[in-house]
Amino acid sequence: MAPRLTPSFTEPIEPPPVVVAPGTVAEVIVADTHLMVALLGGRDEHLRLIERAFPDTTISVRGNVIDATGPNAARVAQLFEELVLVLQGGQALNLVTVGRTVDMAREDVRPSEVLSTQVLRSAKGAVIRPNTAGQKRYCDAIARSTITFGIGPAGTGKSYLAVAMAVQALQTRQVNRIILTRPAVEAGERLGFLPGDLMAKVDPYLRPLYDALFDMLGPEGSGRLIERGTIEVAPLAFMRGRTLNDAFIILDEAQNTSPEQMKMFLTRVGFGSKAVVTGDVTQIDVPGGRSGLIGIEDVLCEVDGISFCHFNRRDVVRHRIVADIIDAYDRADQRKQR
User: Fold this and answer.
1) Closest by Cα among 169, 231, 180 to 209
2) Going by fewer Cβ within 10 Å, which terminus of the chain is more open, N or C?
């Protein structure tokens, strides 16, 4: 007869505790509870945008407490903390602003520092400030460098911020005058013989710079400064042979200069002056394609006092479709190269 087996009973085995890797859980407590609605957005649209930006991280809200769980939990928590600081600084949040702060957080840049920087207050009382990390680096480079190159696609604020920095330098008496110039190159169209005197003929080429001045100083204020010669707007050809001291000089649309014109312009900078060169190497209209902006960084990279700032689609501050158009052209160029 087979031996009878007596069942043995043991203590149930408990599953091992869940070990959470450091940095995968983070909590944010919003002290000012009245900021929660503005922070999360109407119908939580800001929260949904951040969730889409960090799909590997779960975000939950309990009252005034925001919990983040996932690989980017620490970054998401810091992003919410930065957004709270932006709100406490008196600035409003919208989907565009939150989207830009997400881009900054991915680059480990503090949005509160970028968005709290004030370059200038316009004639209408609007505060002009950098809106992206790239724009903040650009403004910082202009402040510390003698010559700054701003290179990137349309809509990134290269010319506008340069004019704002120039007006700010004039108002704080860092310079005695502002000189705005650009090459008179037609963008694929033959304009023929324009009527009027010399300034009337070159006015269409310089209109974007006038627009920026009018926005910051008002038509009357900028008109008075232009009449007194404190602000000079002239085509690039007028720069030859001059030495520009105590001036803030801006060369716009520099991709349409020839290498000889670029050298001529850069050697105009005198004592107490600053120069900003802006351009987009994807929009060259100069005949033959010999742009003075192509390869300039290789030539001047070792010269002290010169900075190069490159913008990308994340720095586009126009309509969202502008960034999408830039991406579409970039993809088309890559297909052609392949």
Assistant:
1) 180
2) N
